[in-house]
Amino acid sequence: MKRKAQRDVLRDPEAAFVIQKVREGLPMSEFESLCGLLGLSEGRLAGLLGLSRATLHRRKKAGSLDRLESDRLVRYARLFSRAADALGGEERARSWLAAPARAFGGETPLDFADTEVGAREVEALLGRLQHGVFS
Q1: Number of C-alpha atoms within 13 angstroms, CB side, residue 24?
Q2: What pLDDT score was predicted for residue 16?
Q3: Cβ atoms 89, 76 nearer than 8 A
Q4: Which end of the chain is more exposed for a tag (fewer CB within 10 A), N or C?
Q5: Partner residues linked to 27 by β-bridges
């Protein structure tokens, strides 16, 4: 079986655009959109991104997230997209991401993905589920 060629991020105009936007800080409208997609309150998503209530208020006032917060937001958007693809839809993705999983020691996939290493483990499990490898 052939391996898919990895995307060359430096030559991919879409990836380069996203990287630049993350570096600049994503607008709060992206935060609000992801709240809707994931079915989470602003407070819950802020917690996943490591934002306190006061910092969330400041970001709303400023109109954008900082670079690290933007990077975390993209991580969760990526996971939602992968979960929707692997599980057959957005509603299933929302449910799966919010449900405690034995594979993650009882944590939800959203909570487990609060680090890049954790997010990779969530993606790996989604890949196994998508290809019928039960874990």
Answers
A1: 10
A2: 87
A3: no
A4: N
A5: 64
